[in-house]
Amino acid sequence: MSIRGLLRLIPPALLLLSLGLHFFTIVLYVRLPLKLAAITIYPIWVWGIIGLVLAAFCYLFFKVRGSMTLILLWTFTILLLADEARPISRLGTDPMEEGPPAEHAGSKVLRAITLNCAGQSDPLEAVREFEPDIIFLQEIPPGYRIKKLTDELFKGRGDYRYNRSMRFGIIVRGTIEREFRFSTYRTQLVTAEMFDGRKVNLLNLHLLSAATNMKLHELDCWREHVENHTLRKIELSYSLAGLRQYGAHPRFPTIVAGDFNAPPNDSVHRIMRKEFTDAFATAGTGWGNTFHWKTPFNRSLPLLRIDYIYCSDKFIPVRSRTFTRPKTDHRMVVADFVYR
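Now predict its structure.
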């Protein structure tokens, strides 16, 4: 076959590659097989962009039949399955603003915040203007005075529990009745009586850090991601078992929040969604990704959503949003709830 004949085969081959990638991506992200965790750690739009570029190249330069159909197929897939798409589409519907919580349909809301301080960010300055009722903190700066934060926020009507060795804590506008500490994991469980007299379970999580090995050409990379996902699922299952045993879940309303170190397509969230509702996925607006990746241009881009606020079915999430705070590579998640 001549060189010209070979060149003519390139456009349909690229289109076929894009179509195959689309089929593979759909199957992969619907089933989330553990053995391929090194691939599904990426947001689905990463593979969608690759498929779109291939299809667009075939359309713009070669007008290959079917390329526009594939472009539309990829676009629809990203808009349907990408975690970022739906909250962005809600931007025009009652977005949360910086400042005190507004009522929802005439009812006072319960506001919860989760923030990974990364050992540097000042929690008081980060949350003060939002006037929260519940605060979940991870990686609190060493030596930070949680009591001072509680007193300044709630003027003597607040309570807290702080684990100094694990550097996480829970602060509430109300009274904490009991606490259960998990000796093995970075997990904290309290039962609190809130300012309105209702009792609420609060589970603060800081799950195992994600595997960062991206050398997909090495077998050790694949093994590392499988082991990492397995250990994180065990950790979460153990924490939820403690919630049922010591927190009387699901009798009391429950909020589970913190740094899950897992993007939305991680299998740990399938465990959570069996009993809990992801506040941002349900009622969030805007760009929800919370972990900043450093770029070669010394800029930070939030490309992964790893910080979450979940609620039990006794709550209805009505608003949620993420906010950038100084001196931490995590964005703060804020969510407003009403009782069902």
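Residues 104-339 form a domain with the Deoxyribonuclease I; Chain A fold (CATH 3.60.10.10).
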